[in-house]
Amino acid sequence: MIHEQVELHNVEELVRVEGRPGLLMQRVPESVRAGLLEKGREQIRRAALLEIRFGLETGTAAITLASFGGVSQVKVFYGDYEVESRQIGETPTTIEIADEGPEPGFQFRSPWSEGVPRPSFGPIWRILVHGHEVHLLGLEGEGLRPPAPHEQPALRYLAYGTSITFGIAASSPEVTYVAQTAWRLGLDALNLGMPGSAHCEQAIAEHIAARGDWDIATLCISVNMLNQGIPADRFADQAAAMIRTIAAAHPGKPLVCIGLFPSYADLGWTWPEREVRSTSGEYRAALWDVVQRCGFPQVRYANGGELLDDWRGLSHDLLHPASSGMIQIGERLASVMRPLLPTPKK
């Protein structure tokens, strides 16, 4: 969305929250959030690969942010290139950017005119935020402009899933498997990961189906349902409904369904105080069967155990992939998705 001469990437609505300053940058509209389960209504408010993007023609720019519910990470990029990293909390933080002298972060003038490769992004500023509920408090700068289409990737990748898709155990947002996959394929990522709350609800399925801003999508479903006692047959019904809703609305767009990654569940263990009614193997088999029977040729199955086949890629909880695991998933998922990508429109 465009807001005050900048583009808010992966933001569908700006929401006022009682008792807080500024506007919450939310990944789905309030009407969609209302249709989610209680935890999902909370988690979808968290920032996941959100970006404030803009060109700066002259002068300086100042972007003021605050993070509620926990500390969020902020990464500043100039085009494809990282400039700085910081953390923000509830105390308002202003990020200042100046367009004067050498290009910021470089020791020489205008690398873009000297043939520096820029495969994905042109000379625009990208303020990436990831973590908790991030509010936009202020935008200042007379020379601000939204990015032009040619300054951004031509194709978009939408990812729905659990905390693994969100990237809960990754050391940095650009190391999440969604960002890693997008980076390798030159795609623009839209992250709809929902920690602890990816239940394939009809509201989120219809939202993804109604969106026209993606070219390829993945559904990583759903260790949340397994851990929260949903039997495999009920999971299959909900997954099938979600897949049908999205695939029917986008018959020409690839939809890759990712089975469960390796976890403690494969060892027969359960999360404390949880009653599990199916095995991870039954969940994988159920999703594979749903994909085979769905009747949509653009829907594919990706085996999570093949995307991540080294247990050392997990974090200490033996559930969430850590950074090395995220990188492996990104590499292998990119290989799965590469032959499915459509030709960008000129």
UniProtKB/TrEMBL annotation:
Residues 159-325 form the SGNH hydrolase-type esterase domain. Pfam families: Lipase_GDSL_2. This is SGNH hydrolase-type esterase domain-containing protein. It comes from the Bacteria. InterPro entries: SGNH_hydro, SGNH_hydro_sf.
